Amino acid sequence: MPPGRAHALPSGMTQRLRSLLFVPGNRPDLAAKAPRSGPDGVVLDLEDAVPSGDKADARNAVADVVGPLSAEVPVYVRVNPPGTPWHEGDMAGLPAGIAGVVVPKLESLSQLIEVSGSVSAAGIVAGLETVRGVMDAREFLGPPVTACYFGAEDYVYDLGGVRTDDNAEVASPRALVAVAARLGGVTALDMVTLDFGNTERFDREAHEARALGYRGKLCIHPAQVALANAAFLPTDQEVEKARKLLTAFAEAGGTTIAFEGQMVDEVVAARARAVLAAVDGN
Amino acid sequence: MPPGRAHALPSGMTQRLRSLLFVPGNRPDLAAKAPRSGPDGVVLDLEDAVPSGDKADARNAVADVVGPLSAEVPVYVRVNPPGTPWHEGDMAGLPAGIAGVVVPKLESLSQLIEVSGSVSAAGIVAGLETVRGVMDAREFLGPPVTACYFGAEDYVYDLGGVRTDDNAEVASPRALVAVAARLGGVTALDMVTLDFGNTERFDREAHEARALGYRGKLCIHPAQVALANAAFLPTDQEVEKARKLLTAFAEAGGTTIAFEGQMVDEVVAARARAVLAAVDGN
Amino acid sequence: MPPGRAHALPSGMTQRLRSLLFVPGNRPDLAAKAPRSGPDGVVLDLEDAVPSGDKADARNAVADVVGPLSAEVPVYVRVNPPGTPWHEGDMAGLPAGIAGVVVPKLESLSQLIEVSGSVSAAGIVAGLETVRGVMDAREFLGPPVTACYFGAEDYVYDLGGVRTDDNAEVASPRALVAVAARLGGVTALDMVTLDFGNTERFDREAHEARALGYRGKLCIHPAQVALANAAFLPTDQEVEKARKLLTAFAEAGGTTIAFEGQMVDEVVAARARAVLAAVDGN
Question: Neighbouring chains of C at 3+ CB pairs within 8 Å?
């Protein structure tokens, strides 16, 4: 990419959300402990983690816990989706001081407009987890949405498919969500890994996700947080290679060179610069 | 998924079409034997299986065979595609009593409107097997289309590509067809497996297809029917796991639990319920 | 596919561009030697291969070299992308006698209209290498664009992802470019392979690309040209099988037959005919 071309990352992408740890809204005990694992954000969940009968209690528990918790870590609240009996109450009861509201199963611009009428300062994290929401994401990702996640479990349920270990059934929608996020200037977060003891799978998925343009991953267990925090930064090897490559490219005066068996031109150099920028606290 | 959210499967999806067995329209002898393998539907083919010179004879043979055959199994007729010299005659000569007409190489809403003017009661099974038809499927899947299939052989021919054993060249369009079918409320049927002696491949493809949201598979040999019928139902292992999981989830009062190393919340439970529903004759 | 259906390949597809060899515009010495490896086309690059300070000199060098070079091989010039300080000068200075102009990072119809106002006779080769350009390619591929390429390196940079050896992060966009090219009647060219010593990778990618509908591959080293020229023609084995299959199909009078364990009908025969046509100098 020639230097004359503006290619700044959209502002939404500067938000660091390598790990977003979900905690059931009805478990204030877990919420209090959530910062210990070092997540970039914590989500207090009023949706799937809370049974119908406990929705009101959970809302109160969330309101109580946000104050102290948000002094330690950015706190988000996931409300129940538009169209459910709890959605409006959840939105009306959003406590002050949260970093954003997570709206699951968002699937259209009109829904977003309705939802965003109820939100004041905080940004929206859009849950893309229905077939329609994923396919139409490009139409509604953008302010006030600052981030989005791909919800593979709900997506496959909505599709009528089967979740498998190799994730082949979500390859296309997973790629599409990252693309729509990029076009909307929004941070993309990868699906959960339900088998929380399987660190190999989490790690593999996180690296795939980073390659696809994702900036972080939803976590449903504190043990997943450190894995995500590491996986969504360049590796030491990548940083080392980027430094050497840029030195060699500069010494050649910016002309195409062969470096460690690879042809290097401006775009490869630009990617190396992005690696270094990501490490320097992007 | 919270219970407050309407998530009934579209009505088209309740049609059971795990196996749709194709028989050349000019082979009444094979048609008569078709029910023996137990397919959910039989297609009498006037298109690719019949040479140009035999089209009229095949039409007559089909008309003769539909009556007795449809007493045993739902019978479909595949006509020649819109734009060919045989299409209108095929449509005009559709025998009474068929479960539906299969229209190959459908690619636009205007084509569908034209075709559906000629069909009375029977539903349409849309063949998506051109690049345009696959890419634009979302625009025209819906009533009177009740089902569709992905035609990989024709698709790759139209694309100017090469069919390979690993199906990598059809990964994207195959996923897209299932998605368009879901959005249109239509049953999706997976591509044929031409090497009919390769049961491993058929089985692998059927399981991939089910994961992607397909409900059945085209069969071009009676030996493929039993494989399809088995593959598009949940396995005993899935049913067993779904039962146990739902019991544990209910005992916990619907709150998030860890079950066999996996985090289980409402959406995972909903998927387990769908597994049981599929077995109970959905 | 029945014979009554018109299925001629769009005219753009008859252009033979199995290998398109890139040479830095500021290296007339390399340009002079470029025809030796036998590429179907040579691109003199004013963009990524040329540092900002050398842009004007490179433009002059390109103008000098085109005359003699185009006597030996079709010559293309890659200009700097629309919106850069060099684009208009590059376009104004395009030498006579070139086979086409390569416009990188093309992403909209309005850009194309602007660019094509400056081009007279020569066709345009569109570089699809931004997220927007790839996703919207279908909207602007078509005359005066005669060919396009998928630029994986720039695409992944724009996406904010990571380039990997297994290319999983480009699977979806790579398939999409070939599809958009087909719908626009344009020749599709596959991404570069940067590690130019890795012939196994180049070969694997070329065969994947051909399966996806690509007609050729960008080359960044003369040693890659022979690999591309071979990979984008049917193999001897394919030709042999196509001949045998067509003989058997003809002997059966065009009716469905089993051939070497595969069911063969009209569409399979049509694909075999396309294999033979590709060898006969298409």
Answer: A, B
The verdict on pTM exceeding 0.80 is: yes
Instruction: Determine the angle formed by the axes of helices A171-184 and B171-184, rounding to 10 degrees.
Output: 80
A117 inside 8 A of chain C by CB: no
- Given a cut of 90, is residue C47 above it in pLDDT? yes
Q: State yes or no: pLDDT of B203 exceeds 80.
A: yes
- Cα–Cα distance measured from residue A135 to residue A141, given in angstroms and rounded to the nearest whole number: 12
What is the CATH superfamily name and number for domain A11-231?
A: Phosphoenolpyruvate-binding domains (3.20.20.60)
pLDDT above 90 (res A120): no
State the nearest Cα–Cα gap between B119 and chain A, in angstroms.
29
Q: What is the ipTM of this complex?
A: 0.91
**pLDDT at B269 > cutoff 60:** yes
Q: Is B63 on the interface with C (CB under 8 A)?
A: no
Chain C's closest residue to A207, CA to CA, is: C162
Q: Nearest C-alpha of chain C: how many angstroms from A161?
A: 20
Residue C234's pLDDT is 93
Spatial neighbors of A241 by CB under 8 A, at least 6 apart, are A260, A272
Reply yes or no on whether the pLDDT at C210 is more than 80: yes
Domain residues of chain C, as ranges? 11-231, 236-280
Which of B9, B18, B177, B265 to probe the A interface (max A CBs under 10 A)?
B265
Which positions 145-174 of A are in contact with C (Cβ < 8 Å)? 171-172
Angle between helices B171-184 and A152-159 (to 10 degrees): 70
Residues 184-203 of C with CB under 8 A from B: none
* Cβ atoms of residues A47 and A39 within 8 Å: no
In this complex, which of C48, C51, C161 lies closest to A213 when CB atoms are compared? Answer: C161
Nearest to C162 among A3, A5, A211 (CB): A211
Which residue, among C21, C22, C75, C65, has the nearest Cα to C47 in the 3D structure? C22
* Interface-testing mutation among A162, A200, A224, with chain B (most B C-beta atoms within 10 A): A162
- Going A101 to A107 to A109 to A111, the CA torsion angle's sign is negative
Which chains neighbour A (Cβ–Cβ under 8 Å, 3 or more pairs)?
Answer: B, C
Confidence tier at B4 by pLDDT (50, 70, 90): very low
Mean per-residue pLDDT for B179-187?
97
H-helix or E-strand containing A108? none
Contacts 24+ apart (CB under 8 A), A267-274: A267/A1, A267/C48, A267/C153, A267/C154, A267/C157, A268/C153, A268/C194, A269/A245, A270/A1, A270/A7, A270/C157, A271/C153, A271/C156, A271/C157, A271/C163, A272/A241, A272/A242, A272/A243, A272/A245, A272/A246, A273/A242, A273/A246, A274/C157, A274/C160
A86 contacts B262? CB cut-off 8 A: no
Give A79's contacts (C-beta < 8 A, 6+ positions apart).
A46, A47, A86, A87, A90, A91, A94, A101, A102, A103, A104
